Amino acid sequence: KALLRSKVYFPGLDKLIEARLSSCYTCQINSPTVQHEPCQTSELPSGPWQLIALDFYGPTESGTYLLLIIDEYSRFVIIHEVNTTASHYVLPKSHESFSLFGIPQIVKTDNGPPFNGAEFGNFWNYYGIKHRAITPYWPRANAEAERFMQNLRKVFQNANINQIDWHFELNRFLAAYRATPHSTTGIAPSSLLFKHESCSRLIQLYEKRPFQFNNDDISAKLNDE
């Protein structure tokens, strides 16, 4: 709904979307059956790419793993496919993203390998990154990553149901996710990170306005989450 509303509006739009979703077999079987209470973060970022969460999804059907890198301010997500979760695979991918988007102040991970190993420890120290390990055996402490895992499960389910390559389905999902206003911030992750409105497959039916946002409003929404 949020992505459609950002591109076009007409009376009855919400009902039309709900009717389409209710008749979609793939949507119905992928709907979550258990809802968890949201978790509060202990320290909230005041701007993009200050607090980053790292986590893994997998193994995939290909036997690989997905490294998730999530900016907790903009909710922008980067995904790298790695052969294993060993540090010699994961560290170069993390370094690649940090060299592209900048060095974060804080990185939040679970307390297991490879993030608690010597190689990552040296990496944190070299760049002056504060490593925050979440509560052991409680993945919901990394709430944003945990929520995104649910989306990834749907991606793989959709790929299986529709018999398409999961890499294609993942990239299609990421393109839509990054361009869709987030339920917490009300702004698309790519817009909040890059300060401009993203294009999508949906036709823009009105003239684009210069992208603007109030940083205090975003911080307040993150605190209210």
TrEMBL record:
The organism that produces this protein has a lineage beginning with: Eukaryota, Metazoa, Spiralia, Gnathifera, Rotifera
Q: What organism, scientifically named, is this protein from? A: Didymodactylos carnosus
- State the protein's name: Integrase catalytic domain-containing protein
Origin superkingdom: Eukaryota
- Integrase catalytic domain residues are 44-197
Q: Which GO terms describe its molecular function?
A: nucleic acid binding
User: Secretion signal: which residues?
Assistant: none
Q: Give the UniProt record's GO annotations in the biological process aspect.
A: DNA integration
InterPro entries attached to this UniProt entry: Integrase_cat-core, Retrovirus_Pol_polyprotein, RNaseH-like_sf, RNaseH_sf
Query: PROSITE patterns from the xrefs?
Result: INTEGRASE
Any Pfam family the entry gives? rve
